[in-house]
Amino acid sequence: MNLDDYRGVWVFIEQNERNIEGVSLELLGAGRKLADKLEVPLAGFLLGHEIKSVANQVISYGADEVYLVDHPVLKQYRTESYMQGVMLLARKYKPEIILYGATPNGKDLASAVATDLSTGLTADTTMLDVDVTNRLLEASRPAFGGNIMATILCKKHRPQMATVRPKVMKALDPDSARVGKIIEEKIDLKEEDMRTKVLQIVNDVTKKVSIADAHVIVCGGKGMGDLQNFQLIHELADTIGASVGGTRDVVEAGWLPHEQQVGQTGETVTPKIYFAIGISGAIQHVVGMKNSEFIIAINKDPNAPIFDVATYGIVGDALEIVPKLIEQFKQLRTEKGGEMSYA
Ligand SMILES: Cc1cc2nc3c(=O)[nH]c(=O)nc-3n(C[C@H](O)[C@H](O)[C@H](O)COP(=O)(O)OP(=O)(O)OC[C@H]3O[C@@H](n4cnc5c(N)ncnc54)[C@H](O)[C@@H]3O)c2cc1C
User: Chain-wide mean pLDDT for the chain?
Assistant: First the structure.
C-alpha cells in the first residue's frame, strides 16, 4: 500500500429521511480543522435515496465536496448496502481519514468498512488532531477503564478511521453562501441480493428523558449521601427549570435511571450551565461534561478534581448550600414573575 496515494478528510453524513444527525455536522466542524492543517479538501459522503437536497446543507456546514450515492436500495440503513456504497467511494477516491459518528449505525458501518478495507478504527474517540509531518490522525479516547487518555495512531494502513461520540465536537455555524462541489457516484445494487429486508419501520413514540439536549443540568453525585438527600438535586432542578443528571455511582445506587448518567458510559452533555454537586470529578465523569459552558461545582473537599474543570467552585457541605440556593432561586423567580431565562 502506498500511503501517499491517499488524500483528503471525509465525514460520513448520517441521515434519516433527509434529516442529518447532529454528530455528522459536529464532525464536519472537527474535520474542517484537520483538513485545513493537512491542506486537503474536506468531504462529506452521503448515502440514501432522493437525498440530493441534503448535499448543500453539508457544504454550508464546512465541506468543500460532497460525494453522493443515491439508490432506492439505500433508502434505509443496512450494513450490507451501505458498506458497498462506502467501499465503492473509498476504493475509488482513497481518502486518508474517514470520521463517523459513534451512533448505532455509524459504529456498525465503520467496523464493517474497517474489516473490509483491512484498516484500523479507533472507536468512541473524544479528541482528534493530526501530526502534519507524518500525516497521522491522532485519535484520543479514554482507555484502561478510563484512567488514562490513549492517543491511537494507524501508521501502516489507509484510510485512518475513527468513530466520534456525539456532542464532543462543535459544529460550525452554517453558511448558506459557501460553495462546494457535488460528486455523484452510480452504484449497482439489487434488492434481491440483500440478505436483510426492512419489513416495517416502527417509530419509537415513548418519551425518554434526554439530558443530552438540556440547556441547564443539575448533576448530583454520591456526596449527596442518600436517596432522600438526593431529592435536593431534583428540587434545585425544578426551581431553575433544569434537567437532572447523576454520576455512575448515583445510578448504581438506584437514585436515578441510567438514561440520566453523565460520563464515559453515560451521556455526553454540553449545556450552558452544569451544576456538579457532591461529585468528585473522576475522569470518566469529566469526559462527559467538560465541554459545558459554565460549570459550577459544590464539594466539601477543596482538592476534589472537579474544581479543575469548574468555572466557579463552592467549597462546603452541599446539604447546607443547596437548600440556600433553592431559597435564593425561588426568590429570584418570584421577583422575575416566575420565569428563568438563560439567554
Ligand atoms: C470503565 C468505567 C466507566 C465509568 N463511567 C462513568 C460514567 O459514565 N459516569 C460517571 O460519573 N462515572 C463513571 N465511572 C465511575 C467513576 O470512576 C467514579 O467512580 C464516579 O464518577 C464517582 O462518582 P461520584 O463523584 O458521585 O462519587 P465519589 O467519587 O464518591 O465522590 C463524591 C464526592 O462528594 C464529595 N462530598 C461528600 N459529601 C459531600 C457533601 N456533604 N457536600 C459536598 N460534597 C460532598 C466528596 O468530597 C467527593 O468528592 C466509570 C468508571 C469506570 C472504571
Answer: 94
CA distance 340 to 343: 10
- Look at the block and give the residue holding cell 432506492: 72
**Between 213 and 131, residue with greater pLDDT:** 131
145: left (phi over 0), alpha (psi -120 to 50) or beta: left
Say what the pLDDT of residue 205 is.
56
Which residue's CA is the closest to the ligand 1 atom numbered 53? 145
* Ligand 1 pocket check for 166: Cβ under 6 Å: no
Q: What does the alpha-carbon distance between residue 292 and residue 284 come to, in Å, rounded to a whole number?
A: 15
Whether residue 286 has its Cβ less than 6 Å from ligand 1: no
Helices (H), 61-207: 79-93, 104-117
Strand partners, 8: none
Residues 6+ apart with CB under 8 A from 160: 96, 97, 98, 119, 120, 136, 137, 139, 153, 154
Sheet holding 127-131, edge to edge: 127-131, 136-143, 148-152
Q: Whose Cα sits closest to atom 1 in ligand 1?
A: 145
Residue 209 pLDDT grade (very low, low, confident, very high; cuts 50, 70, 90): low
DSSP per residue over 259-288, as a string? GGBBSTTSB----SEEEEES----HHHHTT
Calculate ∠ Cα 172-290-275, nearest 5°: 115
Residue 145 Cβ < 6 Å to ligand 1: yes
By the 8 A CB rule, do 297 and 306 touch? yes
Q: What is the pTM of this model?
A: 0.71
Please name the amino acid found at residue 196.
T
Specify the 3-state DSSP secondary structure of 138: strand
